[in-house]
Amino acid sequence: MAAKFLVFCGLVSLASATIKLQEMFSWNVVDWNYPDQFSKQQALRTGALIPENALPVGIERWRNKLFVSVPRWRS
């Protein structure tokens, strides 16, 4: 039984390794939707928003929505 399970796991890993992922979207910096341009410029000026410090670490898809998690590890 254990041998069959190991063979099955090997076949699954082999099959998944042959699947090529296609890049659909890419970006260099994450941007936020501020209520107006003044608020965004103020956040940039004061350091409340530093776009280069935003590192997306998780992406989940639910129905037709995409959720990106960006933890606040830095300012």
UniProtKB/TrEMBL annotation:
Show the InterPro entries listed in the entry. 6-blade_b-propeller_TolB-like, MRJP/yellow-related
What is the protein's species of origin?
Bombyx mori (Silk moth)
Q: Which UniProt keywords apply?
A: Glycoprotein, Secreted, Signal
Gene Ontology CC: extracellular region
What is the phylogenetic placement of the source species in the record?
Eukaryota, Metazoa, Ecdysozoa, Arthropoda, Hexapoda
What range does the record give for the signal peptide? 1-17
Q: Does the keyword tRNA-binding apply?
A: no
Please give the function described in this protein's UniProt entry.
Controls the pigmentation pattern of the adult cuticle and larval mouth parts.
User: Subcellular localization, per the record?
Assistant: Secreted
The entry assigns this protein to a family as follows:
Belongs to the major royal jelly protein family.
What is the protein named? Protein yellow
